[in-house]
Amino acid sequence: ARITLRQLLDHAAEHDYALPAFNINNMEQGLAIMEAAEAVNSPVIIQASRGARSYANDIMLARMIDALAEIYPNIPVCMHQDHGNGPATCATAIQYGFTSVMMDGSLMEDAKTPATYEYNVEVTRKVVEMAHACGVSVEGELGVLGSLESGMGEAEDGHGFEGVLSHDELLTDPDQAVEFVERTGVDALAIAMGTSHGAYKFTRKPDGDVLAMNVIEEIHQRLPNTHLVMHGSSSVPQELQDIINQYGGAIPQTWGVPVEEIQRGIKHGVRKVNVDTDNRLAITGAIRKILTEKPHEFDPRAYLKPAKEAMRQVCQDRFVQFGSAGHA
Ligand code: G3H
Ligand code: 13P
Ligand code: NA
Ligand code: ZN
C-alpha cells in the first residue's frame, strides 16, 4: 500500500526508530528492497534521483513501483523523489505517483551552484504549497553537505566546491533551521551534520565523532515536530570493499559512517537515513565475483540474482539496525 513520507515518519517518531531510504534505478534493486522488507516486516522508502528517472524512464519506474506494491500488499511503500532540483521535477514526480518529494534548494537548479538562503526558502515554500495540495510530503535541505574532515562542501556531482569551508560553515545553523521550517512548512529536513555523498567520506577510520551530534540534538529540541534526514549515510563496509577488490576492482581504502553513529542520531530525531552507496558496492561485488569465478557464464540472471541477494542483505541489515523492522 502507498503511504506518504509524513505518515511513515510520524509513526517512526512515535516509536523512536528511523527508516532507511534506499535509491533504485532498476527492477533488481526494487525487488531486493521489498524482499528485505518482507523478511523483517518493515515499511519502505524507495527513492529515485533525477538520474534514476532518466535511466529507467518515468513510466517504467512508476509501473515498477505499482508492481512492487501489488506484489507486497502488506508492506507500506513511500515513493520519494531524491534531490529534486526545482518545482518542475517535483511536479512531474507527483504526476507519476510519488508520495513524497525532496526539494533540494540548497543548490541552484543546475544542482551544482550553492544557493542563497532566500532562494532556498522561496523555492521550497512553493513546492510545499503545490505538494501539500496534492497530499504529497516534502523534504527540504538546509546546509552544505560535505565532510568535516576535508572541510570541503560537495556538489551533487560529487565534486567538491572550490575553496575550503570552515567547520561551522559545513553544519546547518539551528536558528536558521527553525526559521526555514517556519517559512516553508516542510515535513522533513535534511541537515548538514558531517556526512557527504558517495564512497569516499573519510580517509581514516572514524574515531566515533564523525557526526555533529550537538547540532542534531539542538535542531531536534527546537523542532520536535520536524523529522530530520541524514543524507550520505552509507557505512561503506570493509567486507564489501574487499569483495570488489578481491575480484579485480580498484577501490582505494575508504571509510563511511559507522552504523553506531547513525543509531546515536536516531536517538536525537533522525527519522530518514539515505543509503545508496552501500547497495551499489554490494551489487558490484557480487557481479564481479560471479564473472570472475564463472568466466564462461553469460546469462545475466546468473549474476543479477546474486547481485539482488547481496543488496537484499544490506537492506535487511539496515531495517534491523535503524529499528524499522517489525513496524510494517
Ligand atoms: O545522492 C545521490 C544518490 O546517491 C543518487 O545518485 O544521482 O547518481 O542517481 P545518482
Ligand atoms: P550515500 O552515498 O552515503 O549512500 O548517500 C546517499 C544519499 O544521500 C542519497 O540522497
Ligand atoms: Na531525499
Ligand atoms: Zn542525498
UniProtKB/TrEMBL annotation:
InterPro entries: Aldolase_TIM, Class_II_FBP_aldolase, FBA_II, Fruct_bisP_Calv. It comes from the Bacteria. GO terms for molecular function: fructose-bisphosphate aldolase activity. Keywords: Calvin cycle, Glycolysis, Lyase, Metal-binding, Zinc. It is an enzyme of class 4 (lyase). Pathway: Carbohydrate degradation; glycolysis; D-glyceraldehyde 3-phosphate and glycerone phosphate from D-glucose: step 4/4; Carbohydrate biosynthesis; Calvin cycle. One is catalytic and the other provides a structural contribution. It comes from Caulobacter rhizosphaerae. Pfam families: F_bP_aldolase. This is Fructose-1,6-bisphosphate aldolase.
